[in-house]
Amino acid sequence: MRRVVIIGAGAAGTMAAIFAARAGAHTLLLERTRDGGRKILISGGGRCNVLPSKLDERRFVTDSSPNTLRKIVRSWPLPDQIRFFEDEVGIRLEEEVESAKLFPASHKARDVRDGLLALARRSGVEVRMDTLVTSLEPDGAEWVIGVGGAESLRADAVIVATGGLSVPNTGSDGAGLSMLRSMGHTMHPTYAALTPVTAAPGTFSELSGISLRVSLTATSPARQATASGGFLFTHHGYSGPSVLNVSHVTVRARAEEDATGAADIQVQWTGHDEPAWNALLQSGGTRQVSSVVRHELPDRLADVLMAQARVEPTRKLSELTRDERRRLVEVLVRGALPWNGDEGYKKAEVTGGGVALSEVDPRTMESRRAPGLFLCGEVLDAFGPIGGYNFLWAWVTGRAAGSAAGMTRAGTTVRS
After folding, report:
1. Are 180 and 370 a contacting pair, CB within 8 Å?
2. What CA–CA distance (Å, rounded) separates 252 from 258?
């Protein structure tokens, strides 16, 4: 029987184990922590956003070929993944319509982690927790896996699903990335992605705790990202889905330019565009400017923005000059969001960069550098926005790697 070892019992690794076992392989899943799947447990505020309810492939970020990424994502269509979780894992999914996210009906992330591990065991997977992999070496047609405090293991195929560098307190330490780099894989620079952005004390310092929906555009000399959604002022800067989804632009700008502020963040504070705000502010009458702006925004934020625009809150609409109106609309529609850094891997949802997608066969996730070695999940150069995209990437790549690794190759000898 073909022997497959999976390193890492997170989202991608557990999925890979299920499909390797279903393909007929003797499957061993190794996990360095005592329980595995810790990122599943903390995701979605403890609810686990299993999948997006709608998929837009263009929202993935990669320095590799977008065409290769599309091939990988399309290998397991979203409706089929939903059926898998509901029919085979036994977890009914519910859509949060406003955010287009799918959560377990129980709203318990633990149900997702435990359900996947239970399905893996029912499929015949042997699971070993508290097992640290110390080395990985090819030996002819086999692989030798060094394990701390135990004898080395031998396998016909190995799947690396060790995750990246994000949220290190869940067990992510980048060991898998280092291992793959040492084997000669082409690596795109890694960076913290989907992480909160920090700001020096200043204009918005007193607004901590205020949340609203905004549209952000982050622009650097090399790239641009736009996102709409929740925004939160924090004690250190800004967070919320809209911020996380553009943060990779600022993170990479700092790393590449070695200069804080190498990227600009522009914010549209409401759903009103320039013509809409002009219409509101040109309506005339004796109403004060503050009454119009505060109707659309939290009071404290409205006051700060009017001060930025140098417009007196008590000024009547009928008295607004053209220049005052222009300044205020500019701040409301194309306001500058000052920043000076980010929360890094400690708070990052995922790791950007990693093994170039050209280094794997997009149908099987097998390494083009090392036959019998398969890669999936966060070690690969791709990530998506908040909203289930990164779990989708884990499920798709894990399934492809497990299915392919578990199959006996034509022309090879089946070992017992």
Report:
1. no
2. 9
Q: Which amino acid is at 103?
A: F
Q: Within 77-220, where are the H helices?
A: 78-83, 109-122, 175-182
pLDDT at 168: 85
Mean pLDDT of the chain: 95
Residue 401 near residue 365 (C-beta atoms within 8 A)? yes
Q: What's the rounded Cα separation, in Å, for the pair 65 and 75?
A: 16
> Tokens for 16?
């890979």
User: Which residue stretches of 74-213 are H helix?
Assistant: 78-83, 109-122, 175-182
Buried b (16+ CB within 10 A) or exposed e, 58-81: eebbbebeeebbeebbebbebeeb
Contacts within 8 Å (CB) and 24+ apart, 173-179: 174/351, 175/133, 176/7, 176/8, 176/379, 177/351, 177/354, 177/355, 177/379, 179/136
Which runs of consecutive H residues, i.e. helices, occur in 25-99? 38-42, 66-73, 78-83
CA dist 109 to 21, 176, 399, Å? Answer: 24, 25, 20
Distance CA 81, CA 11 (A): 13
The pTM is what? 0.94
Distance, CA of 161 to chain centre: 15
| pLDDT bucket at 69, cuts 50 / 70 / 90 | very high
Query: What tens digit of pLDDT does each residue of 238-263 get?
Result: 999 999 999 999 999 999 865 545 89
Asked if 242 and 230 touch (Cβ cutoff 8 Å), the reply is yes
- Mean local confidence (pLDDT), 383-405: 98
Contact 345, 165 (CB under 8 A): yes
User: Identity (one letter) of the amino acid at 352?
Assistant: G
